[in-house]
């Protein structure tokens, strides 16, 4: 029924646009010279779009927006899920924190136009679902490190390159409807956008704006036992609807000034989202009113603003080329959450007679601002190129996490009206919730690069210095202000050797770091953070460091295809792990106070394969296929022995095809994604997570020389997220396998359909 409605809706714009003749607007795309016209992004090209064969010495996979465009991704996260080794540990249909090579998001460096951007996450990660896909020019997966980039890239880096003033000559508008699967006829949303680029005054200007509705309706079901294969205690049925709208505006201007080139750019993104979770808990697993034990209403209101401003000036001087950069990036995250809970079986009298009511509320405000700059110089030497410079950044992260006093009262078991819920009292900061983190980095570097015949190479040194001051108003007076500093020397080297006209070999080695998460630096005491035990942070934590190597082989297939395989290894030192201080916890005997310290080592390894090629070698030049598969593994020692790095998926698989029918001006294609199981073990809890497969399909029709319409469907297999939780009261019980609770949880989301039209002008 729903698909029929969409297909019917698709006929109308096709019929209307079909009246536009090709003679009215005739444009010929040029794939080789000058700015890329908007038309090349919206028409059916008659040939598949493939991965780029990057010319970088450092192993890099490059994907233009057109590689993802036909599946109409809403966000950068939707696009990134198709590239090798990118995993997510999000809810179904959510793609926020990139886990490159399956590792925690804090091990992956997210760059926008080559620069770091602050994120709201305590692990310094940036949620890529905050960037609308419409802003992207290309995405680069940088597998190793170079001296001229930040060393916070143990797993690698994702560089999201936004359109600049030279990207477009002309413009386009985009409009469409989205249908989400959470009612009989679906919930509808819209997406609107426009981009234009061209000559303005002495320079070139690009401006763009985008608005898109986002909705993610899910159903969760949990079964809780006293232990594995034990007695069923209760079940919980939950609906979780995330509904919001993203707004974005971007601009770029490029102009010649004083013998050099000045480039100015800005990006603003607003995420306005409301998350509504409602659940019913039933005793004994029997879903009747007589067994209804708890009714819970948990709502979260989110308003997040991202702002990024950038100025770059480059000019030939001092015997080479000098670049000066100045940037400002900010994230302002405001979240208000409340939870109402009604209990019905505390005295055995069933619903609707309520026994007790509880209300909680929390307000979280995080503002992270970062000023950055760089002075860099590059000059040619005899047989090589020398590049050196200094990059700096000043960060201020102001966090206020406050809670209102809990409201709780018993309700008489006689018929009548429940007492009026009083308003929440004054909000007060939670332990560790009122803090200011000031961080200053000054990172000089030097790098040599060159090529000789079939060999291309680069080698460099980077020295990163960090000074941190933490002011925590919730800590004891003696620990309220703490300071620490450290420095790391980060060498890197890469070589690429052309074996013949089609084959090349790449070898890279580099040292990288991962700075500690903000929540692990706070010296505030958190009661019963791990089961019944307490936790206190360590402001003197040092970064983890890693030595890594990548070895890759790549072959060109025909004129445009490419196939590659890459093996990687990381040896990580000074892992940040929880340790027992030996002091008794606030809950008394048998509990402890835990902290974190730099202890132990770990290693990560894997093999990555990718293929992107047209099938012209069998006479199907308008059919393209793509396949990437990453096998991932790791090893680390913790308080219970050997395990993988927490939540690292054991594989990531993507494959699909696109097929163009030039005589019809049409195309279609599909992509399939599957992510392997991930396991995590922390103090007092263990979890195993697995995901179902995701299938996406698109149909595309050119209805005029400058108009294309696409119908896409996502999550067509109704993918589920399945989790198994082993919960314990304390670490001793965890080691002895004395369960506090054993839980099975399944989360499902339905398909999402989009009907989108693009018109170039």
Describe the structure.
By secondary structure, the chain is mostly beta strands. The chain has a single domain, classed as TonB-dependent receptor, beta-barrel domain (Maltoporin, Chain A, Beta Barrel). The protein is 5% helix and 62% strand. It is built from five helices and 39 strands. The strands form four sheets. The chain has a 22-stranded antiparallel beta barrel. Strand 35 and strand 36 form a beta hairpin.
Describe this structure in a few short sentences.
With 761 residues, the chain is mainly beta.
Write the layout of secondary structure elements.
Layout: H1 2-17, H2 39-42, E1 60-64, H3 65-69, H4 76-80, E2 86-87, E3 99-100, E4 108-112, E5 115-116, E6 136-142, E7 156-162, E8 170-180, E9 187-200, E10 203-225, E11 232-257, E12 260-283, E13 292-317, E14 320-343, E15 356-381, E16 384-403, E17 407-410, E18 428-452, E19 455-472, E20 481-498, E21 503-514, E22 525-530, E23 533-536, E24 544-557, E25 561-573, E26 576-584, E27 592-598, E28 601-615, E29 620-638, E30 641-643, E31 651-661, E32 666-675, E33 678-682, E34 685-691, E35 694-704, E36 707-714, E37 720-727, H5 731-736, E38 741-749, E39 752-760
Parallel strand pairs: 4-7, 23-27
Antiparallel strand pairs: 1-6, 2-3, 4-5, 6-7, 8-9, 8-39, 9-10, 10-11, 10-38, 11-12, 12-13, 13-14, 14-15, 15-16, 15-17, 16-18, 18-19, 19-20, 20-21, 21-24, 22-23, 24-25, 25-28, 26-27, 28-29, 29-30, 29-31, 31-32, 32-35, 33-34, 34-37, 35-36, 36-39, 37-38
